[in-house]
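PLAT domain-containing protein
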Amino acid sequence: FERNGEANFQIEAVDLGNIRKVRIGHDNSGIAAGWFLEKIKIEDLSEAAPEEEGEGEEPSKIIPKVWYALCGRWLSDSEDDGAIQRELPAGPEDGEASLPVIDYTVTVITGDRR
């Protein structure tokens, strides 16, 4: 995979219904096998439905059913937590998985009870 890139795969399978989670990983073979996964987008082209059309508009285009599995983490034995496989919840909402890193100060205050 290329950094900040996108790879598309077309897979034929039985109907998976509503996808609720995705498991992804690699076998860690090769040099620098790890990679950062922002998100996975899954489109079910067989479930495509016409988009609603307004008055006087052209015929509607086909809108595929889509799920997103947000990750924002490494699949690498030398980065993050060392995991090369992840199980991700999937849903209809897209977004950015990796949020900006913010530094915090955490203060723990104990009581005087025994």
